[in-house]
Design a protein that fits this description.
This protein has 374 residues and is α/β, with parallel strands linked by helices. The protein has helices at 15-27, 62-76, 109-113, 121-141, 193-203, 221-229, 241-248, 262-265, 270-277, 288-297, 308-319, 322-339, 346-357; strands at residues 2-6, 31-36, 50-53, 82-85, 101-105, 143-146, 180-184, 209-213, 233-235, 253-256, 282-284, 300-302, 372-373. Helix content is 39%, strand content 14%. The strands form two sheets. The chain has a seven-stranded parallel sheet, sandwiched between helices. The longest helix has 21 residues, at 121-141.
Length: 374
């Protein structure tokens, strides 16, 4: 099968797109063309794919980005058996003449608009209904993959759910230490950025540092720079997911301090699962999915929303109880290995695409090519 995978929003090294889905397709012998913002993100495409470079959908020139995406998609689907897109922003750019097309829905765009404080309130009211209308239109015209069971309320059709799982090491990771706490992922106000800076301030007298690994929203960047400048925390910026999780191993705790917002309330706690996979005790706010998972696996502590003092107390209790945190790390890893190891579920994803493309066999991998810039 020849498949064209496209994103203009996500980082080219996005864990779900590149390290799970594209990797699964390559391991199954399929041929991949990958449209992504390689230059914008300073990423060298992997040699196993045919790469087409596009601008990233950010900034003040959306028209130019959409025109470039439309041109890239026309080029990418010329000999493709299937097109797989990852962004709602790409739906208006889909070519008229194209192979069977799949939209992988792994974000709640309309729900996320409510968390964008910098967006004018009028737009926060107007845009969500328009996004829902575009989603309903897409469901009638495209195949869909859903990343969350909760998305079925938005898309009532019979669509496969391919959740955001992770790679879980077969052998137990190193036990949790007692000198640092970590956060891996996008850093924003709705994900607890302000609380984490205050947490770093509370933990500094105890010799415990905070490591933040991930890209940051523009409005939060000055606060993080100031905190790093005075030695409160270490912010490493964007790091590919597989490397970021290796960096996190051995931490005293992994933080998931999401606020109580509609698009967080029903989501699968992917970050919690990633910490569990690396044997890191979890400290999480009481969103339903996170509470259920942490209590079921016995792998962490629940703290109130927007309460850095309670988070600091939880961290210090873990520091003072090495047996408890070691047990939490071991329980989390074992539970993740049994239930959330991506290779155990990758075949379901590949089979769905093969069925939609109606190409049961495989094709040889392409020779490495240089990216084509649009």
């Amino acid at each position: 099968m020849r498949i064209c995978v496209a994103t203009i929003v996500h980082h080219p090294e996005d864990a779900r797109i590149t390290h799970r889905q594209i990797q699964a397709l390559l391991e199954s012998g399929h041929e991949v063309t990958y449209i992504a913002p390689f230059t914008s993100c300073n990423v060298t495409p992997r040699p196993e794919v045919r790469a087409i470079d596009v601008p990233r959908a950010a900034g003040s020139r959306p028209g130019r980005t959409l025109r470039a995406a439309r041109s890239a998609l026309r080029r990418g689907v010329q000999d493709a058996d299937l097109l797989l897109v990852h962004d709602i922003e790409l739906l208006p750019a889909l070519p008229v003449h194209r192979p069977p097309t799949v939209w992988d829905v792994h974000e709640d765009t309309a729900g996320g608009l409510t968390a964008r404080d910098r967006l004018p309130s009028a737009l926060r009211r107007i845009l969500p209904p328009l996004v829902r209308r575009l989603e309903r239109r897409a469901e009638r015209r495209l195949h869909l993959i859903l990343a969350e069971e909760s998305f079925r309320s938005r898309f009532p059709g019979d669509h496969p759910v391919i959740p955001n799982l992770t790679y879980v090491p077969d052998s137990p990771p190193p036990p949790p230490g007692d000198r640092r706490v970590v956060y891996v992922g996008r850093i924003s106000a709705a994900r607890g950025a302000t609380e984490m800076v205050e947490l770093a301030r509370l933990l500094k007298p105890y010799g415990i540092r905070l490591d933040l690994i991930g890209p940051v929203d523009a409005g939060i960047r000055p606060m993080l720079r100031d905190a790093q400048r005075v030695g409160l925390l270490d912010w490493f910026g964007y790091v590919p997911n597989r490397h970021a999780l290796r960096m996190a191993q051995g931490a005293l705790a992994g933080l998931s301090l999401l606020h109580d917002l509609p698009n967080h309330r029903e989501s699968m706690p992917a970050k919690v699962i990633e910490y569990m996979a690396r044997g890191i005790p979890v400290v999480t706010t009481p969103l339903p999915g996170a509470v259920s998972l942490v209590e079921r696996a016995g792998c962490g502590v629940i703290v109130p929303f927007r309460d850095p003092g309670a988070v600091a107390e939880a961290v210090l209790r873990l520091r003072d109880d090495p047996e408890r945190r070691t047990a939490m790390g071991a329980h989390g890893h074992a539970h993740a290995l049994r239930h959330y190891h991506w290779p155990d579920h990758a075949a379901e994803f590949v089979t769905a695409l093969e069925r939609w493309a109606d190409v049961p066999g495989t094709v040889p991998l392409p020779r490495p090519t240089r990216p084509v810039t649009i």
